[in-house]
Amino acid sequence: MALTDAVVRISKPQAKPYTLKDIQGLSLYISPTGSKAWHYRYTLKGKRNRVSLGQYPDICLKEARQKCEDARFLVKNGFSPNHSDCIEANTVGELVELKAKVETFEQFSGCWKLFKLRKLGLDNPYKRQSTAIQIERYMRIDLLPGLGSIPLNEITKADVLKVLRNIEMWGALSIAEKCRCWLNEIFRHAIAEGIIDTNPAAEQGLLVLPKIPFSIIRFYGRRSNQPFW
């Protein structure tokens, strides 16, 4: 069960140390002396590990969850949050060391997603997750199969256009437009971070295809085996 600010605040020390579990591997360690520390437990390369995320009340519950999310992102991409690969994400988007190691579109898009959700204030698991779910779904179905394994600085305009055309081919023009906007954001973000110099998604809006009549879309469906052209 997820922790609340009140539970964290009123928790008392006991004769032996104990932990209160939160979500996503985050927990609050309480010592017999009354000190409280945030811990994140994770599995990397088949081994269980734990990393400290700071002391309470210096780090509140919301901040601990943000740090936990950053640590989870590191683990997902094969980095240990316990040593020099670890980043201290004290401010929005402060993922400097990890970004220096990121190579593929899949890795950087995950970094961008974390930044975007936090910027929109949607990184709180108690808030509506429709945007996060939408990004995750379209990335998995439409963008990562074609771009995921390509190094970020090697993606060309032709690569981007091919992915977008594949979406448009099934009449999913609104999804293609959403993905086009996200791709533009991702590459602009990478430029701002100094990872790439050009945006291969720029000016893709000039190649938008005309909309398909709704009656045809309803007849075939987005994932049918019959393309629209």
TrEMBL record:
Residues 3-83 form the Integrase DNA-binding domain. The keyword Ion transport does not apply. It comes from the Bacteria. One of its GO terms (biological process) is DNA integration. Keywords: DNA integration, DNA-binding. One of its GO terms (molecular function) is DNA binding. The keyword DNA-binding applies. InterPro entries: DNA_brk_join_enz, Integrase_DNA-bd_sf, Integrase_DNA_bind_dom, Integrase_recombinase_N, Phage_int_M, Phage_Integrase. It holds the Pfam family Arm-DNA-bind_3. Residues 128-203 form the Phage integrase central domain. PANTHER family: PROPHAGE INTEGRASE, PROPHAGE INTEGRASE INTS-RELATED. Belongs to the 'phage' integrase family. This is DUF4102 domain-containing protein.
